[in-house]
Every structure is written in structure tokens, then in C-alpha cells.
Amino acid sequence: MRANVGSTPLRLGSPAQSPETVQDPTPPHPLVRFHLIGTMRAETPTGQSVLPRSRKARALLAYLCLAEGRLISRARLAGEIWEGVPDTQARVSLRQALLEIGRAMGSLRSEVLAFDRDTVRVRTDRCWVDALASPHRGASAPDIDIPNLQPERLLEGLDGVSAAFDQWLFTERARFAEALRASFEAGLHETVRSEAPALEQAAAARRVIAFDPTHEGACQTLMHALVEHGERAQAI
């Protein structure tokens, strides 16, 4: 299933988000690189895996990564990931999962994780998270692997942890799709606004279309760019 995004055609002069306003969340020297698109991975700069083994510990870690450094209450985490489990047991399970994540992180534990009696967070300002970085790259990266960025690939294989987690995951995938759509549209809008060469406009339009083949504005821009470049047959 492909994301149904960008149903409103992009028009010349539309107030699409400028690429300059998209904040790059990547720190200069990330301690851990979290891959949440496709099969989940967590690696140090030397390639050592620091991913916990259990499925629910991975779900917990992914939840914290996508919180973008915000404090998340333990009660919320326990309730969503261990939904249907008595509160006391859910909190015990949460503590065990946090211990498992900490063991997997090893010496990086205190650098990556921050928690107190009531809250937990991942220091995403010290880490790289592909799902947070990809929308920033989308506006300008000609080599970006767009088929791999379809939102259903976010945390692939972690569906079914709990009903509440599935609802959260559905929301996160929709948010991821919207961020990508805005990024691709911003790149396209900028090439049109700056009257970039026809081939650059066509490339930007193709990035949007690769993500959403039904995007009318990108299709129109691509056709106009091809005509301008003298490729009328391809435009038709």
C-alpha cells in the first residue's frame, strides 16, 4: 500500500515550505545510528550493534526515538506497550525492558538514555535517527531511495506489539508520510520558484511522483519541464 499524500496540486507561487526551514536533526558526531525504516537496527560508529533482543524492548526504544528527545512518562509507556497487563506488572516489565536497553547500550547507556522515577527519553540530539533525518534529505537528495521510504516500512515487523502501540504506529507512519511529502514538495516548489533549468525541475517532480504517483501538481510540473526541454513525446 502506498501513501495517499499530496492530493492538492502544487501550483506556481504556492506557500510550500522552503527547504531552508526544514531543520536537520543530525548531530555532527552521533553516538548511535538508529535505523527505524525497514528492519530495526541500532549501531555505534564502529558498526557494533546496540539493539536489545526482545521485541517489546525494541518497541520501547523505537517509541523513544520517535519522540525526538521529549520526556515520555513511564505510565504512558507501560500502558501503551504492555496494554491489558495489570499496572504493577506493566511497570515491572517496563523497568526490565529499560534494563535490557541499557545493557545493550553498554558504556553509551548514560550518554543516550536519560530517565528518572517518572519519565524516560532518548537523547536524540546525540544520535542519528533515519526516520527523523530522511524528511530533511528528501528535498535535495537526488540519490534518496524513495521506494524504501514508503511509510508502511517504518518499524516494519513491529506491528502487533499491542493495540495501543499499533495505533501509535499508525499515527507515526502518517506523520512520517506527511513530513516526507512536505519535504519533496518544498524541493519541487523551490526549483519552480527559482526558475531552475528544466531538467532540475523534472528531477524534483519525479521525486514527488515516485513517492506519490497521483500528485497532480508534480505531474503538471514534469510535463511542462519536459516540453521546455524539447521532449514533447515524453510529456505526452
3D structure, described in words:
- There is one protein chain.
- By secondary structure, the chain is mainly alpha-helical.
- The chain folds into two domains: 1-19 and 139-236; 23-130, Arc Repressor Mutant, subunit A, CATH 1.10.10.10.
- 48% of the residues lie in helices and 8% in strands.
- The chain contains nine helices and six strands.
- The protein has a three-stranded mixed sheet.
- Strand 1 and strand 2 (41-43) form a beta hairpin.
- Helix 1 (55-66) crosses helix 3 (87-105) and helix 7 packs antiparallel against helix 8.
- The protein is elongated, with a radius of gyration of 20 Å.
- It starts with 31 loop residues before the first strand and ends with a helix.
- Mean pLDDT is 84; it is low at 1-24.
How are the SSEs placed, and which strands pair?
Layout: E1 32-35, E2 41-43, H1 55-66, E3 72-73, H2 74-81, H3 87-105, H4 109-112, E4 113-115, E5 119-122, E6 127-129, H5 130-138, H6 163-193, H7 198-211, H8 216-228, H9 232-235
Parallel strand pairs: 1-6
Antiparallel strand pairs: 1-2, 3-5, 4-5
Helix pairs in contact: 1-3, 2-3, 5-6, 6-7, 7-8
Query: Low-confidence runs (pLDDT<50, min 5 residues)?
Result: 1-24
- Please trace the helix and strand order, writing H or E for each element: EEHEHHHEEEHHHHH
> What share of residues is helical?
40-55%
By helix and strand content, what is the structural category?
A: mainly alpha
Radius of gyration from CA coordinates: 20 Å
- The average pLDDT is 84
Characterize the overall form. elongated
Terminus-to-terminus distance: 27 Å
> Total helix count?
9
Strand order across the biggest sheet? Answer: 2-1-6
> How many β-strand runs?
6
* Domains (count): 2
Report the major sheet: 3 strands, mixed
Strand composition percent: 5-15%
User: What multimeric state do the chains show?
Assistant: single chain
